[in-house]
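User: For my dataset I need records formatted as: sequence, then structure tokens, nothing else. Please produce one.
Assistant:
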Amino acid sequence: MAPDAVPDPSPESLREHRYEKLTWPEINLAIKAGKIPIIPVGAIEQHGPHLPLDVDMLLSTSVALAAGARVADKALVLPPLSYGYTGHVMDFPGTINIHYTHFIEHTLDVCKSLAYHGFKKMLLLNGHGSNMPNLDLVARRVNLETDAECGFTGWWRFLTVDPQFLPNWRESEFPGGIAHACELETSVYLHLAPDDVRKERIRSGQYSFHAEKSKFRYVDLFGSGPVDVTSWTASYTDTGVMGAAALATAEKGRRAFEEAVSRLGEFITEWHAVPAPRRKENHAARPTMPMPWGQADSLDMK
């Protein structure tokens, strides 16, 4: 079947939300329907004595797949990018680090491939905090170097959409109770894969510098101090646990997971309906050289 003979999308042809399960003609249909690829990004790194190494990959991928299934007519979920930027955690056995330049270029290549095929919007859904600065750069480069829009977020950020959710869910102190292998990650893992949690080893832990009660240096997934110092993880935690893991329950994990999935699906639905932005040329005379650094220089691209 020639590309120009591909039929209009139908509900039957658009039910699949897993990118890798489609054929190339079905990818054409998905592009025509304006589907938004969701790219889960994770890491393989230590999460204390009680959680497996795949926490960041499992949680981001599970949220993406569940949301994608709910809005399958608007989303496609890619296989996860499983390895992340984790150099500061290498003192703990099992952690796999990808150099930041390789991580950025690899993720960018995936996004640019999607843009090349014709997808105009895509979302990087992260599960590992230290990926965030690099994903910010990836998303910015996609937006400047292709004709597509790329957003990025951590899956846990969707728990802040409803201002009442976290206050009614969280039992741990702020800051520090939710950071790493913590109340949140342990709860969601208990919900998703309880048999893989070493329940008898669950213990809370904290950053050693939190004991100083500094106004400037503190860490939590839902808000950090005005100064960041990302040092070797093993220098401020003996177990690798940073947060109130002892407060975790499977029921709390179910509630957090459902909230994140629901809000991600809500965002995809909202963004799917938003028209693509267009650039506006403000030079008095049109520039006579290409845009520097490989950026898109065609006004028709945005």
